Amino acid sequence: MDRGIILRVWLPLVTGLWGLVWIFQFGPGPRGLAREAGLLLGLVGLAGVIVSRYTLGRSFSVAPKATALVTSGIYSRIRNPIYVSGMIFLVGLVVILGRPKLLAVLLLLIPVQIIRARREAAVLEAKFGDAYREYRKRTWF
Predict the structure, then answer these.
(1) Burial letters for 32-50: b for 16+ Cβ neighbours within 10 Å, e otherwise?
(2) pTM of the predicted model, to two decimals?
(3) For the chain, what are the domain ranges?
(4) Are residues 53 and 82 in contact, defined by beta-carbon separation less than 8 angstroms?
(5) What confidence tens digit (pLDDT) does each residue in 97-121 have?
(6) 22 φ, ψ to 5°?
(7) What are phi and psi of 70, to 5 degrees?
(8) Range 88-99 burial, b when 16+ CB lie within 10 A, else e
């Protein structure tokens, strides 16, 4: 396994899992079924982020750029699975902490993610043209 995969995939996975379990065990908020549901949502979201990140491989970038059109794996169904999974992860954290007021932060983040997705779409469409437009027709968000 090369160092890049360790840094891009395994280190964030281990760090995210550790942080989520720590917050679940020791963080504030009520104990009970809702907290466990929050942990489940957090784990699903974290898994989605990691799978998405792994699938992108070296095509991942923070700023929009078009190195390759990735349409396999989770990207065969969702165009922006990192954004969707990240929001699921954050909902899980809000549920674990038992602070519904934090959902307001999520409501602010949703338009930010939509704007980011549109910027990325414009870059990908400019580079890949019809191939990207066909891909958009087959996938969600």
Answers:
(1) eeebeebbebbbebbbbbb
(2) 0.86
(3) 3-138
(4) yes
(5) 999 899 899 899 999 999 999 999 9
(6) -60, -45
(7) -90, 120
(8) bbbbbbbbbbbe
